[in-house]
Each structure stands twice: as structure tokens, then as C-alpha cells.
Amino acid sequence: MNYLFIDASENTTLAQTGSEEGFKQQIFATDRNFAARITLICDEMLQNAGLSREEVQMLAVCTGPGSLTGLRVAAAFMRTAAMLLDKPLAGISLFAWSLQTLADQGITGPVRLVMPTLIDKAFEVWATLPAIEHTAPVLIERSEVGNQPQTWGIRFAAPGITCMQPEAASLHKLLTSGGVTTAKGLKELLDILPLYVIPSQAERKFKEAS
Amino acid sequence: MITLGIESSCDDTSVALVEDGTRVLTSLVSSQIEIHRRFGGVVPEVASRKHLEAILPLLDSAMTGAGLTYSAIGQIAVTAGPGLLGPLLIGLSTAKALAWHLKVPLIPVNHIEAHLTASFLAAGRRPEYPFLGLIVSGGHANLVFVTGPRDFRLMARTLDDAPGELFDKVARHLGIGYPGGPVIQKTGENGDPKRYRLPRPMAGKGYVFSFSGLKTAVMRIVEQEGDRLNLADLCAGLQAAVADSFAEKVSMALDETAAKRLVMAGGVAANQPLRARMQELANRHEAELLLPTIHLCTDNAAMIAAHGYCTADTAPANSLEVNAVAGWAMGGPHNF
């Protein structure tokens, strides 16, 4: 299964290609210029993998949590590309990717994955996936995070929280194992959306008004 | 040559197909007005999310509606600014994926410049130069002398509020609804514009607009009149004051430039009292007045496609690498 994956959840952009022969991951220092460089990144990754656009069998995009603008730009681009290329698109959350990484490291039993985030850029809360069987993140307060066994921070560490990095090999396994849900065709592609787990001021206002 | 236009600079997602820059094959708009109405204005984060949800179905509908396949698209024009950055990036990223896949040119379009092209598009014509352009919207009040597709001389702009912003704020204060322009026009339909004495801001002060004083004046009248307030007369008076303010500067500019063509564009160009005032003025100066249809007044992708067609030669060679620019000035370089 040949694939192209883009993760724009951080200031840097992570891209990965894979095939039966293996995978290649590269990190691009895009900062705020991700939207400007997205086609260059895709072309460079495909060229390095020796793949044409038509030879790609699946596209994949990180759905976050993370930078909402980056996630949306990546989603807009990859959904459109998937529709035009008539290829399936997989939406991969950092939680699902991280759980695969932990499983590949032989970690079993309930785990807790957390990411720090902010409400209204002021009040600290933590997005968390409380147990391995959960698929959707929930928001908890900072005080609820500590002193629980097997609490892992995705790409960060804090007292009581062990840093873990979602790994390229685990992503490759996730995307090539056949276990990942993909969307194909306009109707299904519309379900590939960023995880809006950061309740911004706008979202709070929206909910209040609703 | 078929140009696909994409517009997402604010709260309207729009996709259009235009042939040879003059013939609209299809033009679809998905409006978020109802969503933002409850806030009394556009919330950028909410707008970005809604653009992402709307853009692909709209694109699909546009292609189906026009009976075309993607291979028929010769080039893609997309709004790259000015506007809200988050919403702009959704349209731009979608356009990039299309241009990347179809291997066709991508033309970044300045949204405000495109509003002027909309008036020619409404007449089924390509822009003819020179002309005097008045852009009136929720974010702009610009008077420009236009000598080429991207050649503008700014003659006047607002020091504070834009007219659409003024209408929104006044409508909110009066509690009559959102967006302000249409509700103020409707409320003032049978009103007496002379009943309340409203100022003509910056009258006799050269090429400059200002509307925040008008807003204050309206609020003062509301306070003074209390229960006696006649809303219809107040709304009629406000529109007359706005129209007079523009008319004075436009008249000066027509004299100075000797332009024989006047173009009004932007969302507020839908305002009937303002349209009537500009027609009187054009007649007096023996100039041709070009106005967009109501559909082309508001943000739409047809004008983006038409302007992209006219400015394709000026697009940067590496246009797949352009970024969105929230504050892209009219005629300004592609500083991406």
C-alpha cells in the first residue's frame, strides 16, 4: 500500500511516504508558511519515494489535536487531492497514532494520553484520551492529570507525565495494516475533519449562543 | 478558456466557472449569515470551520451544474487576500490541490480589485480602462482611479469605519437585525431622509471619508428622541448622509480625472439610495455608470474568476507557493 501522509499539527510539518519496501519520514521547518509550501512538500516526498501521484494508493492526514489553522489547511488540501485522484483518505489522530506507538513498544493495559491546551488562550486544560478503548478525546483540567499510572504526554513531558513521540514505524504499521478507516468519495471525505478539542473563544461563544 | 474561481475571504464560500472572463457558467455561494447573525458579526474561527465543510460540496455542485469535468478547467483563480486569514487559507489550499492535480495555472486574486471587475462582468464585458472605481463594503471605502488590471491610484479612503460597518453597528444599536445594510434599506424605504439632521462627514475637506461620526450622530438622535423616534426616517436619513458623502468626493474625482466611466462595487453597492445617487452623478458628468447586479455585489467567486482571467499575466511564476495575505493592498505586489 503506497501512501502519502501529512501532519501539520505543529509549527513544523511532518510528512511520510510508505510502500511495501518501507517508509520515509521528513520534517519540514514550515512555521507559518505551511500553506505556501504544501505542494512542494508533497512533490518532494513523492519524488524521494520514487512515486508518481497516480501511484499513490492512499492519502492520509493528521487530524490533530494541534494547530487548528495547520490542521485545516492540510485537511482542505488532502481532501481535495483525494477527491480528484479518486484515492481513499485516512484521517489519523495523534491519539490513535500514539496508541499504536505504545502498543508497538509492548505497553499494555489502560493508558492515559494527554496534551496541554488552552481555553481562550488563558485557562489551561488538557485534552486526554482516558483509556485505550476510547477513540475520542475529552477535556480535563490540569489538576486531574497527575499521579495516575501510565500517563503519557504526546510530544511533551511534565511531572508525572512521560513524554512519548508518535513513531514513524507505528504510523506505517497503522496505515498499511488495513485496520485504518478511510474515506472515499465526496460524502465520506466530508467526515475527515480536524479534532476541534481546543474550545476557543469562538467555539464557546458559538455554544453559548446556540 | 474556462476559469474556476474560488472565494473564501470572509463568511461566504463561493465557487464559480467563468468562460473567457465574461460569461458566467455557474456561480454558487454558501452563505454563513445565519450562523454569524447571532454574534452580530463574523467570528473568524467559526467561519474557517464552515468554509472547510462547505467548499468541496460547492465545488462538486458547480462542476455538475455546469455539466463540466475537471479537465475542462484551464486555470484557477483564488482569493489570496485581503480578508480573514483562516478563511482565506481554506480556499487557497483547495485551489492549490486543484491546480497541483490538474497541472493548470493558479492565479492569486486580490478580492477588492475583483469587486471592480464584477461591475463589468455584470454587463458581460471585460474591464475597460481608465475608470473611476468606488469600492464600498463592510471593510472598505476606497475611491481609486484605475488605469490597468492591477494599476490603481488611491484617491480617497475612510479614516475609520467602512459604510457596511457603519450600517452593521447602527442596525445592532437599533436592534433591527443583521447584516445592517439590507435591514436599514428596508426600514428606511418609505422614510423621510430630511426629518433628522445628520452630518455629511468630511464635507469640503478633500479626498477622505469618515463614518464614525455618523454613527455617533445616529446614537445621539436615538437617545434624544426616545419613544418618538421614527425608525424609517432615521434609516432614510442615514443612507442619504452616506450617499452624499460619497457623491461629493466622487464628483471631485470625476472632474479631476476626466474619467468617463464610473464603477461602484462591493456589498454596499447593493444599497438602492446609493445606487440612485451615483446614477444622478454619472448623468450629470456624462459618464457611464457600471453597477454590479445584487448577486455580484456581495462576495462571490465569479468576480474572482473574471479578475483572475484579466490578471493572469501578472501572476507569479511560482504561484503554487503563494500564501494568503490578510492585508494585501490593491495593486500591491505578491509579497508572499
Give an overview of the whole structure.
The complex is a heterodimer of chains A (210) and B (336). Helices cover 32% and strands 28% of the residues of chain A. In chain A, α3 packs across α4. Chain A contains six helices and eleven strands. In chain A, the strands form two sheets. In chain A, strands 3-2-1-4-5-11 form a six-stranded mixed sheet, with helices on both faces. Chain B is built from eleven helices and ten strands. Chain B has helices at 33-37, 44-66, 85-102, 111-122, 163-174, 180-187, 212-225, 231-257, 272-284, 294-297, 301-311, and strands at residues 2-7, 12-19, 23-31, 75-81, 106-110, 131-136, 141-148, 151-157, 261-265, 288-290. In chain B, α2 (44-66) packs parallel to α3 (85-102) and α5 (163-174) packs across α6 (180-187). The two termini of chain B are 27 Å apart. The A-B interface holds A 33, 35-40, 42, 53, 68-69, 72-81, 83-85, 186, 189-190, 193, 196, 200-203, 205-206, 209 and B 38-39, 43-46, 48-49, 52-53, 55-57, 59-60, 70, 85-86, 89-90, 92-94, 96-98, 100-102, 320-324, 336.
